[in-house]
UniProtKB/TrEMBL annotation, chains A, B, C:
PANTHER family reported for this sequence: SECONDARY THIAMINE-PHOSPHATE SYNTHASE ENZYME, UNCHARACTERIZED PROTEIN YJBQ-RELATED
Pfam name, any one: YjbQ
The protein, known as: Secondary thiamine-phosphate synthase enzyme
InterPro entries on file: UPF0047_YjbQ-like, YjbQ-like_sf
């Protein structure tokens, strides 16, 4: 499978975008052992794996990112033409990365009990986000 | 290969967990060219590649992470029910990531001279950690 | 393909190293659907994907990294034997990572419009850098 799957979310890490899971469920079932590669087509959002249970973990992660990457008039950025939240978003995207590779076992993503896929939107006003998913294996 | 390999370590990045290397050595030998994917089943630890020689690099990395992610009563986290080291561990896990993909050449991991696999334990009291290893190639 | 491709760059993130693109263009054309894995053989440089248009984004990213990872006599590092820029480089390497996996579609890297491959040199005086590229797919 190699399709484009749009997803949107407000500024915040969000776990387990339902669109992603729904899009690949049937394709996953064809693999006994393999890898699922998720690739975000953007430089101001990111994909990461983290806690899928308590939504405070997502809020706290946003708190951390906003503290560590300065924003607004006092920030030292030269790249400001697209808004004060743009350069911080680029930095956060490289910090967390825009791709994930997850093992497939017996037709399902083989993740830990508490692991969920987070789509992290780092812009204030999100546009639709495209994820390319590539499945491989036997 | 797609097995679960337990590993434990105190809070600190540790290079080259011997359990990992031992578990995959014979399987690796079957591949002339390929990829080894290591996937940690947890959200409060991480996998990264870094210097495998001077253990001070691991200590300094821990110093950096502890400075950059605040911990304790004055930290701004809402997710504190599992202890003051838990939310910082989640953040560090997303910063470094929980997976590695390493090329295989002629039956061995094709890494640089100074590169070692680090299992980074971000909790104070580690529980056993599970790594799923998937090898592919020819 | 699994070859070593040398590349050099001064301290700064640089997008789209031409050597990389040139090295794999003809090999890529053999794949209708697959994955390209780029793996840097070093612990004081990194690979990331980010904005490929405005070079200020690279400058601002360097500004961020230099602010967040202290350097020089007042920095807390024990690992200083290779120079004051060495331990910060190790940390930045783990923050951004030393590997990328990018989907291949119809013989080309399937990236977003604004995504470019950045080779981030974190040492002041760069030595040649080796990247191992592994292509897989159908």
């Amino acid at each position: 499978d190699d399709g484009r799957h749009p997803a949107t979310a407000p500024r915040l890490p969000h776990h387990h975008p339902q669109e992603i899971m729904h899009a690949i469920r049937s394709d996953l079932s064809e693999f006994k052992c393999g890898l699922a590669h998720l690739f975000l087509h953007h430089t101001s959002a990111s994909l990461t794996l983290n806690e899928n249970y308590d939504p405070d973990v997502q809020t706290d992660t946003e708190t951390f990112l906003s503290r560590i990457v300065p924003e607004g008039p006092s920030a030292p950025w030269r790249h400001t033409i697209e808004g004060s939240d743009d350069m911080p978003a680029h930095i956060k995207s490289s910090m967390f990365g825009c791709a994930l590779t997850i093992p497939i076992t017996d037709g399902r993503l083989n993740m830990g009990t508490w692991q969920g896929i987070w789509l992290c939107e780092h812009r204030d006003y999100a546009t639709p986000r495209t994820i390319v998913i590539t499945l491989s294996g036997i």
